[in-house]
UniProtKB/TrEMBL annotation:
Keyword annotations: Amino-acid biosynthesis, Histidine biosynthesis, Hydrolase, Methionine biosynthesis, Multifunctional enzyme, NADP, One-carbon metabolism, Oxidoreductase, Purine biosynthesis
Stated role: Catalyzes the oxidation of 5,10-methylenetetrahydrofolate to 5,10-methenyltetrahydrofolate and then the hydrolysis of 5,10-methenyltetrahydrofolate to 10-formyltetrahydrofolate.
Alphabetized PROSITE patterns for the sequence: THF_DHG_CYH_2
Record's GO cellular component terms: cytosol
Protein name, entry field: Bifunctional protein FolD
GO molecular function: methenyltetrahydrofolate cyclohydrolase activity; methylenetetrahydrofolate dehydrogenase (NADP+) activity
Gene behind this protein: folD
Residue intervals of the Tetrahydrofolate dehydrogenase/cyclohydrolase catalytic domain: 6-120
Short name of any one Pfam family annotated for the protein: THF_DHG_CYH_C
GO BP annotations, alphabetical order: L-histidine biosynthetic process; methionine biosynthetic process; purine nucleotide biosynthetic process; tetrahydrofolate interconversion
Residues the entry annotates as binding NADP(+): G165, R166, S167, I231
Amino acid sequence: MTARIIDGKAIAQEVRAEWKIRADALKARGITPGLAVIIVGEDPASKVYVANKVKACAELGLHSEHIALPADTSEAALLAKIAELNADPKIHGLLVQLPVPKHIDGDKVLNAISPDKDVDGFHPINVGALATGNMRFAPCTPYGSLVLLQKSGVSIEGKHAVVVGRSNIVGKPMALLLLQHNATVTICTSKTVDLAKYTRDADILVVATGRPKMITGDMIKLGAAVIDVGINRMADGKLCGDVDFESAKEVAGWITPVPGGVGPMTITMLVANTVQSAERSAGI
Ligand SMILES: Nc1nc(=O)c2c([nH]1)NC[C@@H]1CN(c3ccc(C(=O)N[C@@H](CCC(=O)O)C(=O)O)cc3)C=[N+]21
């Protein structure tokens, strides 16, 4: 068997076109959705992310601002910038690129972002809203992964979904979203004893561990849908996922590539959340 490759770039384009209609409707009413991204310090990986995000905002005709602060920016100065953007009516979505430098308390930063502009969905109020099924902003990577499954025709209800990785930004919210869609959900961690026992039982397998190629074909159920959230840069400069694509594609029913899988969808859902936030602020 050879898996159907889930084309994240193509699906991202399709979803962006849907959101462009909504952005255009807002602009017709004189409201341009606006996104602000704050980056503290230099991180080579964030350059691609920022470049792709700028492109997506431009495609949809959104207003976007990039605030690049030096690595030695104080916590107080960062919190002041967040307060300024919280109060800025041109800005409907605001995020601080993670991780922040060690001298800054990341939780304080997430708490400072207005829950109404928190397009990452990382503020405790929005985390709680997702956990109780009253979703406001779904975190972009899990949200994008869910849309990839839906657009690929993978059924979720009643299926066994296994999420490997329990981070606050991917694993935990992914598990909650799948649960919301009536999957039977198992969350595994790097400490899980006999991980393959769980992954081999997964109809839907989402991998977000940050460990290159740790899931191999022999750990996957025949016909499973495999979503690879990992983006690892190898010594040769090439990107690879947390799944060993070559062996996995022989067993899986569907699989996302890296790059060109979850990454483009993360950006798309960030833009979608920004448009949704602007709609909400306009009372739509
Ligand atoms: N507050 C916050 N929110 C985030 O959403 C966030 C963050 N911080 N910190 C960094 C990570 C990383 N991230 C990526 C999103 C898309 C691609 C992406 O577009 N990848 C493409 C291109 C990859 C490449 O060519 O390098 C792909 O996978 O095809 C990459 C990385 C969002 N992040």
